Amino acid sequence: MSHYEEFRGTGNLNIRYREITAQDDAALAKIIRDNLKAHHLDLPGTVYFDDNLDHLSDFYLDKNHKRFYYVLLDDEENVIGGIGLAEIDFFKDCAELQKLYLIDAVKGNGIGYRLIDLVEEKAREYGYKRLYLETHTNLAAAIYLYEKCGFKLIERPAAAVHATMNRFYIKDL
Question: Which strands make up the sheet holding 94-102, listed edge to edge?
Fold first, then answer.
C-alpha cells in the first residue's frame, strides 16, 4: 500500500495509515521506547532492546515473508503510532500481532480497536487462522484492549521471544 487509508477515532479524530517506509523508522522507535519507558519496561527482554527496533522497515518490508506494518499519521504527516504482524512458527497458521504503540495524545480514542481490526483483516488475507501476542502486566490498558477484542490468555509458550513479557494471548480468526 503506497497510498493512504483513513478511519475515524472517537470524536473528530481523523487518522490516516499506510505501509511502513524507512523514513518512519526513527519516529516509530522513539514512540515504542517512550511507551515502554513510561511503563517501566525499558528492560532487557523487551522490544526496547531489540536489534531491529531502529530499522523496523527492513524487517516488515521483507517480501520473502508474510509480514506487514501499518504506520499511523496525523493531519501534519507526523507518525503517531503503528501496528504490525509477522508469521510465527510455534503455532500452526498463526501470526503475531506486533508493536501496537501510540503516542499519548491519541490514546483512548478507539484507535487501538480499529488497528486490531486492520491487522486481523491483513492476517486473514495472508491466510493465517490465529493471532498471537505477548505483553506485560504493566500494560493494563493494552491487556484490557486485547481481552475486549477476544484474545484469550494462554500459558507462556516455550518459544516466546521476549523474556520479560509475562502475558500471552491467542485469538482464532
Answer: 5-8, 14-19, 67-73, 79-87, 94-102, 130-135, 167-172, 152-154
CB 85: neighbour CB atoms within 10 A? 26
Q: Are 57 and 26 in contact (CB under 8 A)?
A: no
CB 136 within 8 A of CB 13: no
Name the DSSP letter for residue 158.
Answer: T
Q: Which three cell numbers stand for residue 8?
A: 475515524
Q: Is the dihedral of CA 25, 135, 2, 63 positive or negative?
A: positive
pTM for the whole structure? 0.89
CA atoms of 165 and 167, how far apart (whole Å): 6
User: What rounded mean pLDDT belongs to the chain?
Assistant: 90
Phi first, then psi, for residue 94 (nearest 5°) are -130, 140
Distance CA 128, CA 25 (A): 26
Cell digits of residue 103: 503516542
**What is the rounded average pLDDT of the residues 112-127?**
94
* DSSP-assigned letter for residue 66: -
Location of C-alpha cell 527482554: 45
